[in-house]
């Protein structure tokens, strides 16, 4: 009796396994195959009938039962494994999804980790902004760098807004992507990328500076950029820009260079580190000004205006030349081969 | 234990034994609903929305959204916007603003006008950044509450956009630009003021300026987009 009940359990498991298999096949097609579904249901009903009959037979003749049961078990084992595999895959998918969700939640919950870097008073921020324009001529003793991210982050966002304004007013056209994405990418890319690079160089040159301090230093250094860009995007005088570039941009660069100088030992190292920093910082301002300014607008217009007759037409004229050249080449090769 | 239970049983029997032959006169009502009258307030009525008409449901939601619009237009120190937040109003405002900014240059492909996606992303990304910033500064406001307030406070700017389009329909002269400038400036101030009124309380008092700056920047960018919008002439 116990045996028969065991086999019946197996049989029901088989039924479920078979059903699972069919479901998987259906799911793979991404469209529910009605024929397949019908097959499944039909077969399952038949199976049910068979099971019923078999159970009755088993009850009637007790000796034949173990053999059949074993066979069924072996046969059903395979199907059971397949069903379990499907279940396992689904389980793993579920687990992965859960992990992702919990990671996102943890990120939000772990916002407290970042909170110390945003622990500032308005007056402190104002003072640091002003100090970012005042180079301190004290290089014998390491200068203090505030490890704080509120000011830099806000300056980067301000610069994004100013860049957007500059792009719009100069009529810049970006073929692939939006103005917004380009502005954000440029500003954050510069801030994070150059900070990492400077940190790397500082590591090579044995300067005493941490990543956080680099981010803060470079971030506050963008204050001068913001002022210069905001003024020169609205007032278009090249001489004015160059004066501002040298004075304001130069001051903020000098400030950073002085800080780095005070934290590095050795002339070569100082030269490498400060030269890299100053060059990158000043050239970035130059790039931002001229990339989204009226001068470039003219170039963009000539590039975009394909209806204007000019050098663009050369492309159209060049096109038929290419097959000619290819034909000539092939003809020559053929000639050479025939000889 | 059994002893005490037995004692309790017998005790209660003894207690209530006297009540069996107490008669209650007919005029005192002894039957009724076993609900506490204080509990059956509006809360329970709100919850039983299964059998109400769909119209009622929609109208209630619309009323809630409209009520919040009113709150933005008359920014008082009220917690209605904060208490039951929803994102329907912000969605409607954001989509309508983006559509209006898009409409003028849908026909011409290559002018640097604001695209629908761009406006949409600026609004939501900006709101998320402001919210995260306020959380980082130690604000005591939930994520979606802040999103809700910032979204609803775009309402003045959407109105400004509407006015700008109407003005642009009439004329393209310098006078129309001055009118637009005034309207946008006023509405920008209104937006910033309203959102500050709702959100400033959640910030520590010494850091209010730090939390307000990104809000100012956010609405400044949007209002600047509204101002520079120009239909293709």
Description:
- Chain A: It is a multi-pass membrane protein.
- Chain A: The chain crosses the membrane at residues 149-167, 179-205, 217-236, 242-262, 271-292.
- Chain A: One of its GO terms (biological process) is cell differentiation.
- Chain A: It is found in: Cell membrane; Cytoplasm; Golgi apparatus, cis-Golgi network membrane.
- The complex is a heterodimer of chains A (339) and B (233).
- By secondary structure, chain A is mainly alpha-helical.
- Chain A has three domains: 2-109; 125-303, no CATH class; 309-338.
- Chain A has helices at 2-28, 34-60, 65-109, 111-114, 122-131, 150-170, 179-204, 211-234, 238-262, 267-291, 294-304, 313-338.
- The longest helix of chain A has 45 residues, at 65-109.
- The model of chain A is unreliable at 1-46, 62-71, 295-299 and 306-323 (pLDDT under 50).
- Chain B is an all-alpha fold and 233 residues long.
- Chain B has a domain at 80-228.
- Helices cover 67% and strands 0% of the residues of chain B.
- Chain B has ten helices and no strands.
- Chain B has helices at 2-17, 42-47, 54-73, 80-83, 88-103, 116-136, 143-152, 155-170, 174-199, 208-228.
- Chains A and B meet through helix 6 of A and helix 6 and helix 10 of B.
């Amino acid at each position: 009796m116990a045996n028969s009940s065991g086999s019946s359990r197996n049989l029901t498991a088989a039924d479920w396994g078979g059903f699972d298999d069919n479901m998987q096949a259906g799911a793979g097609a991404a469209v529910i195959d009605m024929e397949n579904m019908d097959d499944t249901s039909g077969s399952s009903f038949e199976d049910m009938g068979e099971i019923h009959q078999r159970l009755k037979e088993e009850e009637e003749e007790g000796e034949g039962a173990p053999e059949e049961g074993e066979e069924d078990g072996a046969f059903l084992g395979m199907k059971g494994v397949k069903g379990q595999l499907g279940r396992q895959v689904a389980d793993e998918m579920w687990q992965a999804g859960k992990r992702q969700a919990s990671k996102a939640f943890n990120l939000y919950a772990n916002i407290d980790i970042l909170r110390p870097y945003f622990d500032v008073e308005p007056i402190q921020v104002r003072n640091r902004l002003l100090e970012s324009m005042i180079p301190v001529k004290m290089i014998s003793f390491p200068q203090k760098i505030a490890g704080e991210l509120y000011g830099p982050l806000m300056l980067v966002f301000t610069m994004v807004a100013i860049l957007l304004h500059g792009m719009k007013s100069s009529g810049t056209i970006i073929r692939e992507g939006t103005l917004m994405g380009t502005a954000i990418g440029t500003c954050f890319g510069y801030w994070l990328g150059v900070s990492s690079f400077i940190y790397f160089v500082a590591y090579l040159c044995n300067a005493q500076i941490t990543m956080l301090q680099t981010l803060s230093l470079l971030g506050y250094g963008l204050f001068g950029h913001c002022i210069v860009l905001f003024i020169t995007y609205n007032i278009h005088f090249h001489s004015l820009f160059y004066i501002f570039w040298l004075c304001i941009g130069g001051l903020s660069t000098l400030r950073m260079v002085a800080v780095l100088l005070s934290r590095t030992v050795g002339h070569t190292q100082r030269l490498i580190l400060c030269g890299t920093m100053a060059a990158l910082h000043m050239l970035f301002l130059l790039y931002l000004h001229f990339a989204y300014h009226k001068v470039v607008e003219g170039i963009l217009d000539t590039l975009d205006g394909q209806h204007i007759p000019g050098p663009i037409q050369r492309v159209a004229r060049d096109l038929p030349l290419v097959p000619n050249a290819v034909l000539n080449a092939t003809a020559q090769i053929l000639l050479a081969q025939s000889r | 234990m059994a002893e005490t239970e037995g004692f309790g049983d017998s005790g209660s029997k003894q207690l209530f034994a006297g009540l069996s032959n107490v008669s209650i006169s007919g005029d005192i009502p002894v039957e009724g609903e076993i609900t506490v009258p204080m509990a059956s307030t509006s809360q329970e009525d709100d919850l039983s929305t299964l059998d109400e008409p769909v119209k009622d449901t929609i109208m209630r939601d619309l009323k809630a959204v409209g009520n919040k619009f009113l709150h933005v237009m008359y920014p008082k120190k009220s917690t209605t916007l904060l208490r039951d937040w929803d994102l329907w109003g912000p969605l409607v405002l954001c989509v309508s603003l983006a559509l209006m900014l898009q409409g003028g240059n849908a026909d011409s492909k290559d002018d640097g006008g604001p695209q629908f996606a761009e406006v949409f992303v600026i609004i939501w990304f900006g709101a998320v950044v402001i919210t995260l910033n306020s959380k980082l500064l130690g604000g005591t406001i939930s994520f979606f509450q802040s999103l809700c307030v910032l979204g609803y406070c775009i309402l003045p700017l959407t109105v400004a956009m509407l006015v700008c389009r109407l003005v642009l329909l009439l004329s393209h002269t310098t006078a129309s630009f001055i009118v637009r400038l005034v309207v946008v400036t006023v509405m920008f101030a209104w937006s910033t003021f309203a959102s500050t009124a709702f959100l400033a309380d959640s910030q520590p008092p010494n850091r209010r300026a730090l939390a307000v700056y990104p809000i100012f920047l956010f609405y400044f960018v949007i209002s600047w987009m509204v101002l520079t919008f120009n239909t293709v002439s």
